Structure formats: structure tokens, C-alpha cells
TrEMBL record, chains A, B, C, D, E:
Transmembrane segments: 6-29, 50-79
GO cellular component, one term: proton-transporting two-sector ATPase complex, proton-transporting domain
Protein name: ATP synthase subunit c
Major localisation: membrane
Record organism: Longibacter salinarum
């Protein structure tokens, strides 16, 4: 197995697993926050505006951890410096 | 096993596992939020509109983590730069 | 084991595992939401229409994560670019 | 397997796993804090301002642990001194 | 596998895993403390100042454990004495 196969293979595996594993935490965390928000709204309908605003700003912060994983996945697929080096050296 | 078989095989495996593992978290998170929403509606039927609106915007954010996994899966299948490089070099 | 056998074998295995693993999360999430919906209806029979409508739109979003897995499985079986490449090169 | 393949391969694997594993804790922690904040707002609507301010300063601290992982991932991909040394020595 | 490859490889692996594993505990701990603080504020709004001050001093101490991991990761990447020794001895 030469360098190109190895680096390419590993990049594909890691790109997929990074976003797969990295989406579990944010999805569960957002689901929990969302369910509590709806519960809070039912208890205090008058505060629905404040609760909704806080919820979405908070969800954006939780979402950011998923976006970090997505960015790393895309970098590994499309802007991988290790792959660039390997194919440059292998090019005739 | 040559480069083409290896990269192709790994791409198929990772594309499948990425969306398979990546759908567990969002599905459970959305299910939890949805169940709480229905519970909240039963407690405060008058707030059903607000609860529904918040629910669907929130679900869209949870859904986004599943969509990240789906995008990476599709990229690995149809826009895989590693595969493109390998078959270009192998072409006669 | 030549390339055709290998890519074909892996495609079959992954197509099956993708939808198998990918159906666990949505099924549990939908089951939970549905059970809560029935509970909520029992508490507020007058709101059955609103609860049902919210339930089905929400279930459709949870279902979408299962559909992503289904799509990837179908792509791996019927529109697999890796398989197409391998059989084209092997054709006489 | 030569040094370049080895160091490149390991860098890709570690960059992906670092952010994937590192995003689980912050996402769950933020989700928990956010859900409790919404619950607290429902109990004490008058304190919504204080609760929101405390929440976001706290979330920023939890988020910082995810950012540490993201920084280490980016360093391993783009500013890796081990990789720099290996390719410098291998260059003709 | 020579000394340089081995030490470099292990350094990369450990740098990534250190901050990845090391961020799980602080993130969950901070999330828990933050959620309890918000709950306490809702019960005793008059004590919000005291609760907030105690929370942030406490969070800073929990955060310090994450910072220790971050520092060790950076030292392993950028100021690794083992790596310095190995490359000095290997240099021609």
C-alpha cells in the first residue's frame, strides 16, 4: 500500500467519522434544551418571547460545536495539506 | 488489492456508516423535543401556536446536524477528491 | 479476490448496515413522541386536532433522518459510482 | 511505510478525533445549562435578565473547552511542527 | 520505524487525545454547576449577586483543569524536549 492510497483512505474514514461522532453530542444537547423550552413556555406563556430568544441564542452556541466538526471534515476532504503534499511528490 | 479497490471500498463503507451513526443523535433529540411539545400543548392549549412555531424552528436546528452528516456522505460518494485522483492516475 | 467481487460485496454489506443502524434512532424517537401524543390526547381530548397535526409534522422531520439513510442505501445499491467504474474497466 | 506517510496519516486521524470527541462534552454541558436556564426563567420571569446574562457568560466558558479542541485540531492540520520537520528532511 | 517517526507520531496522538478527553470532564462539570446556579437564582432572586460571584470563581477553577490539558497539549506540540533531543541527535 503506497502513500497515496494510505493518506486518501485515512482521510475518507476520518472525515466521515468526525462528523458522525461529532453530531451526537450537539443533537442530544439541542433536543434537551428545546424540550425544556417548550415545557417552560407551557408554564409561563407570558414569557414566551424571552424564552424563545434565549433558546435560539443558546442553540446557536451548541450548534457551533457541530459546525467545528463539519469544518474539520470539509478541511480533511477538500483542503488537506497532507494529501496535497503526497500527490505533489508523486506527480511525475 | 490496488488503490482503486481500496479507495472505492473505503468510500462506500464510510458513506454508509457516517449517515447511519450520524442519524442516531438527531433522531433521538428530535423525538424528545417533539414529545415534550405535545405534552406542553396538553397543558397549555392556548399557547399551541407559539409552542408549534418554536418547536419547528428548533427542530430545524437539530435537523441541521443530520444534514451535515448527509452532506459529508454525499460528498464522499459523488465528489470524492481522493477517488477522482486515483481513477485519473489509473486511466490509460 | 478481484476488484469486482470486493466492491460488490462491500456495497451489499454497507447498504444493509446503513439502513439497519440508521433506523434505530428514528424509530425510538418516533415511538417516544407518539406515546407522549397519545398521553397528551388523553389529558386534553379537545386539543386532539392540534396535537395530531403537530405530531405528524414533527414525525415527518424525525422520519427525514431515516430517509437520509434510505437514500444513501439506495445510492449504494443502484447509483454506486465506484461499482460503475469497476465494471466499466473490467468489461471486455 | 515511511515517515511521511506515517506522520501524515496520524495527523489526519488525530485532528478528526480530537474535535469529534471534544465536542461531546461541551455540547451536552451547554444543553443542560440552557435547559435549566429556560426552566429558571419560567419560575422567576422577573429575573430573566440576570439569568440570561449569567447563562451566556457561563456558556462562553463551557464553549472555551470546545474551542481548545478546535485550536489543537487546526494546529495539527495546518501548523504541525512534526510534519514540517519530516517533509523538510525528505525534500530533495 | 526510526526514533524520529516514533516520537513524532506519539506526540501528535497524545496532544490530540489529551485535550479531547480532558475537555469532557470540565465541560460537563461546568454545565452542571451553571444549571444549578440558574436554578438557585430562580429560588432566591435576592441572592443573585452572591450566586453569580460564587459561580464565576468556581467556573474559573473548573476551567483551570481544561486549561492544564490545553497547556500540556501545546507543550507536546511546540516545546517537546523529547522531540528536540531526537532531532538534534539525528541531524547530520
Amino acid at each position: 500500500m503506497d502513500s497515496i492510497s494510505l493518506v486518501g483512505t485515512v482521510s475518507i474514514i476520518v472525515a466521515g467519522l468526525t462528523i458522525a461522532i461529532g453530531s451526537i453530542g450537539p443533537a442530544l444537547g439541542e433536543g434537551r434544551a428545546l424540550s425544556e423550552a417548550l415545557n417552560a413556555m407551557a408554564q409561563q406563556p407570558d414569557e414566551a418571547d424571552t424564552i424563545t430568544r434565549t433558546l435560539f441564542v443558546g442553540l446557536a452556541m451548541v450548534e457551533s460545536t457541530a459546525i467545528y466538526c463539519f469544518v474539520i471534515s470539509l478541511i480533511i476532504v477538500f483542503a488537506n495539506p497532507f494529501w496535497d503534499f503526497v500527490i505533489q511528490n508523486a506527480a511525475p
